[in-house]
Structure formats: C-alpha cells, structure tokens
Design goal:
The chain is built from 24 helices and 28 strands. The protein is α+β, with helices and mostly antiparallel strands. The strands form 7 sheets. Strands 17, 18, 21, 22, 23, 24 and 25 form a 7-stranded antiparallel sheet that branches. Strands 1-2-3-9-8 form a 5-stranded mixed beta barrel. It binds a DNA duplex through helix 2, helix 3, strand 10, helix 5 and helix 6.
Length: 787
DNA sequence: TGCCCTCGGGG
DNA sequence: GTGTACGAGGGCA
C-alpha cells in the first residue's frame, strides 16, 4: 500500500456519503486531499429516561445506541452513546434531547471529532490509494489508515490579491495577484469588463491552487466586495475552494474555504505586531521599509480615468506588500508550530479561537479517561472573576529597577494545587483562598495538572535539544516549537482563568487567580521584609530597585533574588533591568529603558492610537518621554508646558491638528447630529467636495466649547480658512501630558522612592538633589498650570 | 466605575 | 457547519 506524509492544512467534510476531507501538503510538497469514508457522528446522553431511548431506537437516523460509563460532575454515571447518520442533524438532536436529558459532546465539529478520535496530529502518514476526484489538488487519496509521522513544515503556496474599485458605484476596475511557491513567483493582472475580471480571478485561484489566500483587509473588504459585485454581474457561483465550493462567512468577520486558508495580512499583523497605526502604508514602512505607490485611493475614480496602468501597478504593489508582510511576520511558520503542538490543522490555529486549541488537547485526554465532555455553555453576561494582583505604584523616577517574573504562574498554580474540573469537590483537602475545594493528587490526579505538567516537561526537553544543537536550522526549529508550547500553555490559563469554557466555571478560574494573587503577595512581603522597596507588581511580575547603580552588580543582585525566591515548584525568573523607570502613579502605566538583556524602550499604558488622535498628541507625548528617559524631569515638565503654550498661542502647523475618521451614511448613526465626522462630511459636501459613505473625513475643531463641538472639514492641499480652537487643542494636549506630569506635585513619597536608594548607599547625590529641585518648583502641576 | 457606542483595515 | 468570534477608547450616567 502506498503512503504519504502530510501536513494537514484544513479539515472539512463532504455531505455526499459523509466523507471526511483533509487537505494538506505532502513532504514532497504536493497538494493533496485525503478522503475518508465511514466515520459517523455521535454524542452522549447522561442517564436518559426510557422514553427517550425508545424513541431513539425507532429512529431511522440513529445508527447505534451503546451503554457506557462516564465521569460527570464528580462521579461515574451511566450514559448512552448515540451514533447517528448525518453530522448536520446533530444540532436538532442536541436541542430536542437537551430538554429532557443532559447531552454531552454534541457540539464538536465533525471534522474535529474525526481528528480527535483517530488521534491525528498536525502531520500524519496516510496509507491508501490514489483515486480520481473533482479537486484542484495534485493528489486525491482514499485513506485506509493513518500512522504517526515526524512533523515537518512544507513550503506553502500563497496567493495575495488586491482589488481597486470605484468609490462612486463600486465597479471593480482591477484585481491583481502576487503568487509565491518555494522560490517561484508569479503575478496576474486582471482588468477590463468587471464580469470577466471576477471570473478570471476564480480561474487564477483554481489554476495556481494556493494553500493560503492573503491580502490586506480582504476579510472585511475585498472578499465581501467580490461577492457583492459578482451578484451585480449575475455570476451565480464563485468556486474558489479546492473542491470547487464557495467561500463561507463565519461569524460575520472571517471566511472559510475548503482546502485553503484565508489569512488576512491585516488581522495577523494586528495580532502579532500590534502596530499603533494599521494602514498598509504604515505597516509596510515599519516592517519592510517599503511604501505604497503614489495613487490616492480616495480619488480612485479620477486616478483610473487618468492613468489605468498606474492604478494597476499600484494594485499589484499592494498585493505584493501584503504577501511580504505575511512572510515577514512568519505567521505561517509559527502557526505550523502551534498546529504541531496542539495537533490541529493549520487553519484552526490561524482562524480559530484559543478554545479550539485547548479542546484539541483536552477532549482527547477526557475521552481516553472516560470523562464526560460538557458542551460549551452559552452565557449572555459573563460573570467576571477577580484577576491578577496589581501592586500600587508610587509616582516617581526610579533607577536600576529589577523585574522578576513568575515563570508560568497559572500553570504552576494549577499543577501544584491539582486544580481541575475533575477534582473540584466538597470533600477536597486543597482549599483555595476563595474557599473552593479540590481533591489532592493522592485522591485523584486532575486531568489539567497532568496535561500542563506534560507540556512543561515537553518544553524543557525541546529547550534542551535547542541548547545541544549546533545546526542553525535545527535551533530555529526547536525555538519555534518551545515558543509554540508556551503559547499553548498560556492559552490554557487564558481559557480557564478568565472566561467561560466547556470544561470550567468561575469557581475554578477564580481559584486559580486567587492562588496566584496569594503567591505574588507573599513574595512581595518577603522582599519587603528584606528592606527592599517593591515599586510595582502585576499578576506575575515584581519590580524593585537594586541597591547598586551599575549594571553588573544589579544583574547579580536580580539573579540572586530570583534564585532565592524560587521554591515549591514556583520559579521566579530574573527578566530585565530598567534604567530609568518612571510612573506617575497609575497602575498599568509606566515607561522604562530596558538596559538588560537587550536595549529597548518600554512604554505601557500611555500609547496613543494615532487614528483616535491628532499628530501633535503623540508628538508631545514622545518628546516628554524622551526627556524623562534622560532623567531630566525638569526639562520634561518644561517641554510639556512649552508645548501647551505654543498650541494655545496657535504656534503649531495646522496639519498637526487634523483629526480623521471614516464616516458611514448619515442615517446609519443613532444621533448623527452629535457626531463630528458626520458634521465634517456634511460641510464637506456643502463646500462642493464629494462625500461617499464609508469615506474617511478629516476635520479641525473650531469650537470645542459648544456641544456638540463645531468642526470644519480639512481638505489636504487647500488652505484652511477657519480659526482652529487653539484652546481646545491646548486642553487636549494638556490632558494627554497631564497623564504623566499630573503627579500631584512629585510629592514626598515619589522623591523618597529614589532618594532612599541613593542615600542609603551614599551614592549619587546629584540625582537626589535634582529631584529636590523639582519638588520646589512644581508644587502642583495640573491642567490649570498649562492653561 | 461600568455600560454603550464606535471604529479600525479597505476603495 | 455537531461551533466561536476583537479590543481599545471615548462619552456619559
């Protein structure tokens, strides 16, 4: 019998004959679809009444009823396994039977059920034979059996596309594609009749047969546009799938396709990079050092009329940029690692939720241990559990700050306290700070602690292999893998500690965070007992000043503390040194210069999203941060003041005051009259400029005192003929800066924080004097001081 | 402090 | 498709 090693990319099923279809790429880098017949859906009923069983026995769609015992709600219970013919009828059964009986595991997608039951990994060796079939793939295989195989990462074929269409009437002008497979690259430029463009695009997808389709904001724009326009042109069918089926919209936001992964570059950049601005141009600049071509997309109709070739070239460039961005952030590579450790098709990792990852691990384990799999509870309002402990932070500038992190705090807590949905019990001897009881390990070892311990060991093993390896590729491989395991472990606590999930409840999540709070508070107490000033702490990290004012001694000091406070399975890791470190006394807001292990500026909680603000705001903030990081608080405050006065006096380039936002059609809004973007759009129209719903409009505030505020549209390249409300802008700037400088008078406490350290060891008097000075000059610095 | 509304990306 | 879907920021009570 022939066999193929396959990396699974997507999993689905065909209704006809109920055939499971696994799409992927082989070790030889051929595209493949694996068909498997004979697998049928099933679920469980907990101790069903006889009447239900009688009905099921008479039901022609029911294939089999089988008695079994499952561990449910803390005890073994009599259950019945119900196998039925068609996966798409399961929801009906679930709802119907759910009225009189507890139903288990009836909400697991069919293809996943299959993967779990055959315990398939992300890569499998499939035995079977080649057959004919209506697919775009190189190979169509009828599978007989699966075996394990070494994971591998084949090259994937990626197609990136972009379209340009009329703002006025929506007509698609062009679709351009950039395709990449191994070292080969292709491009396609489609233009002409709209109907032809769309149909040619379908042919291009079928011809190149990509594993991955990408582009920038294709989920939210290009894909819906193509579907919408195809309807306008009377195209009935868009067979983009590897089985010639159509795109399916999931949850209003995402798209799925049989055999191909839709990986929107925008979403992935958002997730992986969190850029402060998300436009393609900005992201291309920061990631690739490239920019878009010189076409104004807000005037696409004129541009098209003027120079078609230029617009087509612009369109192709955008497709290429999206492709390069996706490659740059290496999401496919990382996703393959995460798919390997969570044993899932790559698609589920890229487009699925974290609970999908956890399900994959946990449901298999539950099945093996005859533990009932509850269904996801649909709760409207989610009951919030108390989160991590956040230590209060005194305002001030601190020096040589050591940051220590609890290594895998939540997993450690779960393991050491045997926290699990299988161990929660009134009879338990482990009592959480919230009073919830869990059986101890001797009585019943929890599933969750078991899995997490295994993952932790796996990660250590991979790390060891990485350390032993001499080969660069191998080192990279192991590094990706250990990172993926870390991500997976974090996903566990994410799901268990903070939200509803099929296997947990707020009591369990609340217990986990309560234990964690207890841990960190204990460490803070112990550190303080050693006369160390703990500056800050959040969930699993503590910040304290080193008594030394140089890097080497500080590093040794931090290491020593980390080692000493690691005990009982909880490890405190020395993570970084900050010099200096500043906070104005608000939790979760601070700035620091990381000087070890690598140099970078760390800003938390102060970031401004450019789209929500005008340029001057972030400019001002950055300038002030720069001074603070130079330890010149005087200068920082001075800069802040000057900036505000300049704005109040109108000494500022007008473009720095422009606020932009998109505007939908007016009647879309609840009360359009109060919205600045609507006001700007209306005035823009009155001035004789075009406004199309969805367009981005720019404006400047001319009277911020009125409610709603008065704004005037700003048209780039044209002189602004109104007077900006400089006081309004000065106030906004002051408000932004006051977030940092409104340290109520750099009070004694804030000074002490630094002074103590320096005088204690008789060093660095200059620095404390500098602080004294600030204390004298800035009694209280508030909004009024700026005005 | 907490709830409600809006937006981002794209043309 | 045996299914679930963001997250930050501003305004306002």
């Amino acid at each position: 019998m022939q066999y193929w090693d396959v990396r699974i990319l997507t999993a689905s099923y065909a209704r006809e004959n109920v055939v499971i279809e696994l799409y992927g790429r082989t070790r030889e880098e051929k595209s493949i679809v694996i068909r498997y017949e004979g697998f049928r859906p099933y679920f469980y009923l907990v101790d069903p009444p006889k009447s239900i069983l009688d009905d099921l026995k008479k039901d022609g769609n029911v294939l089999k009823l089988e008695d079994c015992t499952l561990f449910v709600d803390g005890e073994d219970k009599k259950c019945v396994k119900v196998a039925i013919k068609e996966p798409w009828t399961v929801p009906e059964y679930r709802n119907e039977l759910g009225r009189d009986c507890r139903v288990l595991a009836a909400d697991i997608p069919f293809a996943q059920r299959f993967i779990y039951d055959l315990d398939l990994n992300s890569c499998v060796r499939v035995f079977g034979e080649r057959i004919e079939g209506d697919y775009t793939t190189d190979l169509v295989v009828r599978a007989d059996k699966f075996e394990e195989c070494e994971p591998f990462k084949p090259s994937l074929k990626i197609l990136s596309f972009d379209l340009e269409n009329s703002i006025k009437n929506g007509t698609i002008y062009t679709i351009c594609c950039a395709i990449k497979f191994k070292e080969k690259r292709f491009i396609e430029r489609l233009s002409g009749n709209e109907r032809d463009i769309i149909q040619d695009f379908v042919k291009v997808v079928q011809k190149y047969d990509p594993d991955v389709i990408t582009g920038y904001n294709i989920d939210g724009y290009d894909i819906p546009t193509i579907i919408e326009r195809s309807k306008q042109c009377g195209i009935r069918n868009l067979p983009f799938g590897r089985d010639f089926t159509q795109l399916r919209n999931v949850g209003g936001r995402f798209w799925r396709l049989h055999g191909r992964i839709i990986a929107d570059a925008w979403w992935n950049v958002k997730r992986e990079v969190k850029p402060k601005q998300e436009t393609l141009n900005y992201v291309a600049k920061i990631l690739l050092g490239e920019r878009k071509e010189d076409v104004d997309p807000t005037k696409i109709d004129e541009e098209w009329k003027k120079d078609r070739d230029k617009v087509i070239s612009y369109c192709l460039k955008d497709a290429e940029l999206a492709l390069h961005i996706l490659e740059k952030i290496a999401v496919l590579n990382k996703s393959m690692d995460l798919a390997t450790v969570s044993k899932l098709p790559v698609d589920d990792v890229i487009n699925g939720r974290t609970s999908t990852l956890i399900d994959s691990i946990l449901i298999r384990e539950a099945d093996r241990n005859k533990i009932g799999v509850p269904q996801t509870k649909h709760v409207r309002k989610r009951e919030k559990i108390i989160g991590g402990y956040v230590h209060t932070i005194e305002p001030g500038l601190y020096h040589w700050v050591c940051v220590l992190d609890f290594k895998s705090m939540y997993p450690s807590v779960i393991i050491s306290n045997n926290i699990c949905f299988t161990t929660i019990s009134d009879k338990g001897k482990v009592v959480s700070p919230t009073g919830i009881r869990f059986l101890d390990k001797g009585e019943r070892l929890g599933l969750l602690p078991q899995i997490l311990e295994r993952l932790m060991n796996d990660r250590e093993n991979v790390k060891r292999k990485r350390a032993e390896s001499k080969d660069d590729d191998e080192i990279r491989y192991y590094d990706g893998l250990q990172n993926a395991i870390k991500t997976l472990m974090n996903a566990f606590y994410g799901v268990f500690a903070s939200s509803f999930y099929r296997f947990t409840n707020p009591e369990i999540g609340g217990s986990i965070t309560a234990f964690a709070r207890e841990n960190i508070k204990n460490v803070i107490d112990e550190l303080e007992n050693e006369d160390l000033t703990v500056i800050y702490g959040d969930t699993d990290s503590v910040f304290f000043s080193s008594p030394y004012d140089n890097l080497n001694d500080t590093i040794n000091f931090g290491k020593e503390k980390g080692e000493r406070f690691s005990k009982g399975g909880i490890v405190l890791e020395f993570e970084k040194v900050l010099e200096p470190f500043f906070s104005h006394g608000k939790k979760k807001r601070y700035v620091g210069n990381v000087v070890w292990p690598k140099k970078e500026m760390l800003v938390r909680g102060y970031e401004i999203r450019r789209t929500d603000a005008f340029d001057l705001q972030s400019d001002a903030l950055n300038m002030v941060f720069k001074e603070i990081m130079k330890c010149d608080l005087d200068k920082a405050v001075k800069v802040a003041r000057e900036m505000t006065t300049d704005v109040a006096n109108g000494k500022v380039p007008i473009e720095k005051l422009v606020i932009s936002r998109s505007c939908k059609s007016y009647n879309f809004y609840k009360n359009p009259d109060t919205q600045a973007n609507v006001q700007a759009a209306r005035k823009r129209e009155k001035m004789g400029y075009e406004f199309v719903p969805g367009m981005k409009v720019s404006w400047i505030v001319t009277d911020g005192k009125k409610s709603p505020q008065i704004v005037e549209p700003f048209i780039s390249g044209k002189a602004f003929e109104h007077k900006p409300d400089y006081n309004y802008y000065a106030r906004r700037i002051a408000m932004t800066l006051a977030r940092i400088t409104e340290v109520s008078n750099w009070d004694e406490k804030s000074l002490l924080a630094g002074v103590q350290q320096s005088t204690l060891f008789g060093k660095d008097r200059s620095r404390s004097k500098k602080k004294e000075r600030i204390k004298k000059t800035d009694k209280k610095l508030t909004l009024e001081d700026f005005m």
